Amino acid sequence: MSTTTPVPSYRLFPAYCFEASPTYNAWVKLFVADVHALRSEPDFATQKIYFFLNHPVRFVCVVGAVVAIDDINTKYTILTIDDGSGATVEVKIVRLTPDTYNPVEFPSNTVVDNVHVVSRLGVFEVTVNHQPLDIGTVIKAKCTISEFRSQKQLELKRVWIVRTTNEEAEAWAETAAWKKQVLSTPWRLTSREHKQITDGINSKKQKAQQEEQLRAERDFKSKERRKARGERMAAREIKLESRRRKEELMMNAGSLI
């Protein structure tokens, strides 16, 4: 029985090409099961870049029902989201600790402006736009991706409450359409597109080099001006000193008469 790993029908492009990807700078609409299916690659593991086929993904958007709310500690609160795709995912809310939170400076006590966590003796509540989240509340969450104990975990950046079943159905339809139209097909670059990318990079490098050269020339001219000014001041000081000495000699000579 063969154990040969099948060769992918796509290639991973170099990182300098990622800006041309339809997913790299987008909130990629994913089902929760697809979040867990995102793949890491050794060359990008430390950059928190994941891949769906060869699409680079940094930001995701998920829609699902809150099935658990956990008060972990003063730094984190965890929402568990279930969208019916066969998996759940933890969404981490980063809280401002009591020593850093100032209600005058910050609109909420978390890093997400419209999310507030109320935690005191006998009371624990998470609100979105001043509306409490309950078990069963459906939310639309935009997040970055991380991992905790070898499992994908999301970190909340933006969130809205989905208020009607129509909104929920529309959101899931958008996710399905995004997967079909974008993610299901490998990302490809034509030779012309690749040349445009490399030409753009070279153009930026040339511009940066020109700016650096101009900056160096300005610095050199500035140093030369300071040097010339210093030399003029030194020459003037020598001239003044010479005059003072002459005047002193004349005064001394006059006092001997």
Automatic annotation (TrEMBL):
Superkingdom is: Eukaryota
GO cellular component terms, A-Z: chromosome, telomeric region; nucleus
Basic and acidic residues: bias regions = 208-222, 230-239
Q: What are the record keywords, sorted?
A: Chromosome, DNA-binding, Nucleus, Telomere
The root-end lineage is: Eukaryota, Fungi, Dikarya, Ascomycota, Pezizomycotina
Q: Which Pfam families match?
A: Stn1
CST complex subunit Stn1 N-terminal domain location: 24-220
Question: What name does UniProt use for this protein?
Answer: CST complex subunit STN1
State the Gene Ontology terms under molecular function. Answer: DNA binding
Stretches the record annotates as Disordered: 194-239
